[in-house]
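User: Predict structure, ligand NAP.
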Amino acid sequence: MTDVATTPTGTGGAAAAVDHEVVVIGAGVAGIYEIKRLIDLGVDAVVLEANSGLGGTWYKNRYPGARFDSESYTYGYSWSRELLDEWHWTERFSPQPETLKYLEFVADKFSLREHIRFDCFIEAMTFDEDGSFWRLRLRGGEEVTARFVLTAMGVLSVPTYPRIEGMDSFEGPSFHPFDWPAEPLDLTGKRVAVVGTGATAIQLIPEVAKVASELVVYQRRANWAAPLNNGLISEEEMADIRRRYDEIFENCRRTAAGFEHDADRRGFYNVSAEERRELWDRLYDGPGFGIWLQNFLEIFLDEQANAEFSEYIADRIRQRVNDPVVAEKLIPTDHGFGIQRVPLETGYFETYNRDNVTLVDASETPIERVTPTGIRTTEGEREFDVIVYATGFDAFTGAFDRLDITGVGGQKLRDKWADGPKTFLGLMVAGFPNLIMLAGPQIAATNFPRAIEPAVDWATDLLTHIRAHGYHRVEADADAEQAWHEQVARSYSMVLSGRAQSWITGYNSNLSGHEYGKTRYNVYQGGAPRYLGRIGKEATEGYPGVHFA
Ligand code: NAP
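Assistant: Predicted complex:
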């Protein structure tokens, strides 16, 4: 790899002078690694972060119960042996405060904070075609210019609040878990409503139930969930994990979803029903995504296999919920297990056995309006002290739509993506030169950092290539972009999850105004190894899908 600091162009090169060679937007998991790479290379780069602290997702999601559903040691960064040796994950699935502490530890260890500007919300960015650079306008009016912009804005960083009449009239606190108050909020003895039953709510609900005097959950569609089976990591286990790190990351690289869990390849129909049950019993009582990802591949591809497995999970739910009517309400009937991303839970189903918890079926008795004192459904009104809208995110494209991005010829990115994102390898967009996405739409759907690290490396290598050749402008080829888009769309037709009504298909995006019911190809569903192979090939072949000038 060429060291960009020693290349002939230098900062700004022959083109118009800019404030920075590179601006990275966002100081979350991706932005932290990217700035580390850039400063190591001696590039003049800065991270602009909208929040007052680093950590992105892990800075914002402070709701009770927030934690990884990836094994902690597969989620952390893999690029520093020293870091791997020093950090001790205390739980198999790290809680949010520990994860935030980890990211802060990384930033401090590598002196990254001095390269991050906090409280910098970018309102708009426009590509200057004459000078080949980006003009970024910050809230407050300041302008920052940069030759290249690398976006690290997170894929679930724009919360979607529902559009329910009267929401503004509620007199108590109400918020999305993403906007959970930074000041500790004591819910002891409070009457709390939670709207939504996605992965966030499923983590939150058991914790709120422990302290609230009354908790009412408004469920529109039931969501499959399986036990997290968390546990502490002892010194001895951590020492073993450290010894195995190379193997762990290699295993993650080989699997479709970037976890250590790998599919059972015996073949669903090659083993007896008893053997299938034996596997499922073991996986259900085992940790993490094993129940989903160590299962038979047919679960993801074959409706009959999926239906048999879903019935198994339904039975496990029935065993855990005392009231059979409530149990049936908690079992999805509109989609099979694993078709949508599976929430992992700790005592979620047992929570409905508590006297202070009520499940309201908001599809049978829809919410009509929020009142100053509570929520009214077609069945009547209940009063609350606090309302939590755990109603999901404008996934992948929300952060880009929020930013007014103008590319070549005055084209707006949000217009180009009005019907869904279209990218080259999830990394670049035709018509938007010198913009590279580190956690953009149409990358592989995986254990997040396992896709981010290669994206950061790819972007950094591309910048190195650009500098080595004295280029000032880089842009994805429109035909290459179209080809990738078609490949992403094909990947949806190959798996049952391509038909899911979830943020993976853009279902939830309608809350922010996207057309309801139209599939948005938000992620590549062909698996991480194929994705990594494809982006690696693009680089080794000299970037045939990219124009340089
Ligand atoms: P989500 O999965 O999109 O769930 C949103 C929930 O809100 C759904 O139950 C949805 O119901 C409901 N909803 C939306 N609008 C509603 C309305 N107007 N009235 C009633 N209900 C409404 O969002 P999420 O729970 O925030 O999870 C998103 C993703 O974040 C997860 O899939 C996961 O990838 C990630 N996450 C990860 C972790 C972790 O452990 N690492 C934790 C939390 C979240 P419908 O199903 O009917 O639309």
